Amino acid sequence: MLSNYLNIAFRNIRRTPGFSAINIIGLAAGLVCFILIGNYILFERSFDRFHEKADRIFRLTTAGQDGGNEFGVATTPTAAYPTFKRDFPEVLSGVRILSTADFSPTVVTNGDAVLEEKGFLWADSTFFDIFTFKILLGDPHTVLDGLYTVVLTESTARRYFGAANPIGKTLLVGKYNLVVTGVAADAPLNSQIKFDFVASFHSLDRWRALIWDSANFYTYLKLNDAASAPALAAKIKSAMPSLTGSPMTDGSYMTYALQPICDVHLHSTVAGGLEPGSDIQYLYIFSAIALLVLLIACINYINLATARAVKRAKEAGVRKVVGAQQSQLFAQFFAESALVTGIAMLLGLLGVYLTLPYFNKLTDRPLTISLLGSPAVLCGLLGLGLLVSLFAGAYPSLVMSKFRPIQVLKGNFQTSGSGGKLRKGLVVFQFGVSFFLMIGALVISRQVAFIQHRKLGFDKEKVLELPIDQAIRKNIAAIKQEIMADPAVQQVTLASENPVAIQGGYSMWAEDHPTDYSLGIGAVGGDPDYIKTLGMTLIAGTDFTDLDMALVAVDSEALRQYHFILNETAVRQLGWTPESAIGKRASLNGREGKVKGVVQDFHFASMREAIQPFALFITIDEVNKMILKLNTDHVEDVLSSLKIKWKARAPQRPFEYQFLDEQFDKLYRTEQRSGRIATIFAILAIMIACLGLFGLATFTAIQRTKEIGIRKVLGASVAGIISLLAKDFLKLVIIAIVIASPVAYYFMQKWLADFAYRIDIQWWMFATAGAAAVVIAFLTVGFQAVRAALANPVKSLRSE
Prior knowledge:
The chain is α+β, with helices and mostly antiparallel strands.
């Protein structure tokens, strides 16, 4: 029986290649979209779940409230983990991690090879006990026990030592000679902790002391019981005043929060991290897009199948007359649906294989086709195929199996009524979803463009950043002078942090405030040329001078005199005006001095966040970046010249650089990626929706063939007939736009609410998307309407 059903199904597919091709291509396109996005979502949700006891591993983050403003950063001080392990029995173990990429890439020397490494971590000896990173050579429990030891990843060991065994070999890292004690497998792609080197944390002289006032470290705790995390967080908050010696004041406190490691990638709500995370919101958005596009494809199949029901009515009637039961007819037509879905699934898998490299480039993720080879995923795909077959094929199969043979064979078959209303409703749904996706893509692209073109308060174009080290700092004046001699270099400055990613971690006391007052503030140490180089606007006071540099260069820390330049937000939160702030006494993490100037607010973090308080101070020892402002379009020539000078002045460090505008763009990769995905799938959705509209137009034209013939005989024009057929469909599209507009407005307003600086949704966005939808719908329907209008009426009326 089944083979008979399949033979009939194949025969019908061959008889109507056009309709069959549209059905199969539409479903295949929907399945490609669904599988690709499903693959992406599975990968994103798999982050850090490979660790054994991952449910008991928590990231410790700094959190609190300052003057009513909540804050949170991913870094913590060195004292947190040892103190919590000592004082709280809930803590079984933990690890502190220092990523040198947060400051300046690490220079590793091996013989004559001098390389700059960004994946360098310093960690406690418990690193490989807490995390399940496979150790290929060495004992995971002891590889970091000794001072001046380092573990390499497999690819790094091969890069430095080839096929030779690296155990016992020595690498020069800064001023440290580190002995290789282990080789680990490369970190999985779905790990938010990635590394090329892990060195012994206790080898760092300056960080051996347990301190609370410098938050530069990532801390992870392993608990005895995951359920104890909320109670532990409450204990930590209560204990912090006594541990740090800083009592809580009204509206201000500082504590440490616990976040499950499996939530870090998608649910992080604090600034910073070992790797840029994603956002669970986008997974929800992509899930909805995948489901909606697949639904549109299924609806397209339903419309096309019911459009063909007229031609297959007599077939069903004859089968019933010769004894076929309704259940048998349902099975036959459903088998045809399953066959079409099966072919579409195979074509879809081929499409996934062909488009996966482009999708990976679009999403910036290393997804592989091998994910589809697991039994669980294959069972999921089989279930997806059955579900699509059931959803897309059930209604057409039911309609055709319920035909009354007497009416059909007499030519009295009708498919109007509730069935026609359902088909129209499905078209409204299709175009409503397509319009929604068009609005979403338009709003996201406008927001990204707004971010990229908004004035930042500083100049990021043609600004070059070079990492520096202690050896370069010793001769920095001569190096700056030589670089400034190049006419293509407009200005040079030194800084402790990247201007587009300045972290918090500082606290400021200021005159006119209680002695226990503390303002959480971001800060950068630099030299007197910082504001000039970045093109910032000073609105009150004066800029730094060489005298300010001299005042902090004295050997005695007690005799050093600091001056500060604050941004408008800091001045406002301190209760001052820019003019009244000048000359006020202030203290920044123990640096005593006075406010010298006020700079216009500038964006030094993502525009998702409101501008925070900021302070600039002069320093010598803390700078680790050289920032150059170029005044030429011939950047390659400048880089070649700089490279020669760099090798002559700093042979111990490779010439590695970054452009500020590229670093700024990295802050919004998620938004850019989401905008591209939304645009592509909005186009795909409306293309599939047009197939559905084409199906309904075909169905209507077939139903009204004789009516059209009579109208033509009576003198109706081609334009009149086109209008007759098109207006009903355009009504459906307009209804879809009206229904979808408030829904799109609501959801896009929620998305924009995550940005402190955002566009306003304008009426023209809806008008543009609506006009595009109407034009596309008219062209789709118009093709079928013109075809029907130009048909010979003699053929349509011959049976009369």
